[in-house]
Amino acid sequence: MNFFFVLNGKMIKQILLICMASFFTAWFLFLGNIVQVPVFSAKDGPKAVYKGEKDIALTFNIGWGDEKAEPILDALKKYNVKSATFFLSGSWAERHPDLVSRIVKEGYEIGMLGYEYKDYTELEEEKVRQDIANAQTAFKKLNVNNIQLLRSPTGHFDAKTLKIAQRYGYTVVHWSIDSKDWTNPGVKTITENVAKAKKGDIILLHASDSAKQTEKALPYILDSLKDYRLVTVSEMIANAESKSSEIK
Q1: Cα(207)–Cα(59) distance, integer angstroms
Q2: Which of 31, 95, 150, 246 is the most exposed place for a label (fewest CB within 10 A)?
Q3: Exposed, middle or buried: residue 235 (CB in 10 Å: 0-12, 13-18, 19+)?
C-alpha cells in the first residue's frame, strides 16, 4: 500500500521557520551556558576594568592595620616581584606615611581605595564625592601624585560610582580572581584560589591586618604564577584591551 503526503508551499515554509527558530534558540542557550561575563559597567557610560588580555596583575588592598603591610613588602622584595598595584585608603596612608613612601620607592603602583571603608552603593552621590576628595587630599599631602586607579573600598559599586570616578579622572578597577585571603581560610586554600588565574586576570589580595595568612601564602602563590609575567594594572590596561560589561 502506498501513502502520499502532499505539502503545499505555505506548510513547508512554516516547518522551515520552526526548525530555524529551534536551532537558533538552542544555539543561544548553549552560548549562554559557556559565556559568563561579569557585569561591571554602565550602559553607554564609564566602565570598570576587571580583566585584561594577557599577563597577570597582583593587587593588594590596604585599609587598616600596621602589622601586615611591611612583611608583605619584604616578601615581594625577597622573591624579586617588581610589579604590583597597592590600593590604599587615604586614612591608612595618612597614618603610615613611611610605608606609603616605601611602596613608591620600590616601584609599585598606587591606586586609591577611597578614604574611609564605606560601601559606595549605600552612600549618596555627594558622600561618595567627598570620600574621594578626602582621599585625594591625603595623597597630595604625601606627594603621591598622578593616581589614575580607583577601587571601591568594599568592592561594591554601581553606575553612580563609575560616573563620579570618571569625573575625577579615575578608572575603576575590580578583579577577576578573589584569593579570599581576608577570610583566613588557610595558606593552601588561598594558594588554590589564586592558582586558578589565567592570562589577563587581576588578582585580589590584602595587606591589611585582617589578612593574617597572605604573607605565608605568597611564596606558593608566586610559584603558581611562575609561567606568567606580573604587571601593574596600568600596564595591563595599556598593553591590552581590558574587559568590562554592563551593570544591570
Answers
A1: 10
A2: 31
A3: middle
Mark out the alpha helices in 169-210 (DSSP H runs).
187-195
Which residues is 47 bridged to in the sheet?
41
pLDDT tens digits along 30-49: 333 322 333 345 455 688 99
Half-sphere exposure of 87 (CA within 13 A, CB side): 32
Residue in 150, 163, 54 with CA at minimum distance from that of residue 110: 150
What integer is the mean pLDDT of 141-156? Answer: 96
Mean pLDDT of 19-31: 41
Contact 183, 143 (CB under 8 A): no
Asked if 229 and 56 count as a contact pair (C-beta separation under 8 A), the reply is: yes
Distance, CA of 88 to CA of 52 (rounded, Å): 22
pLDDT at 46: 81
> What grid cell was written down for 26?
538552542
Residue that the C-alpha cell 594594572 belongs to: 233
Whole-angstrom distance, CA of residue 78 vs CA of residue 228: 18
Quick one: cell of 241?
A: 584591551
Q: Give pTM, 2 decimals.
A: 0.81
Question: Confidence band (pLDDT; 50, 70, 90) for 239?
Answer: confident
Cell of residue 196, nine digits: 586558578
Residue 42's closest CA among 163, 138, 152?
A: 163
Residues 6+ apart with CB under 8 A from 154: 117, 118, 119, 120
Cell numbers linked to 216: 605565608
- Residue type (1 letter), 41: S
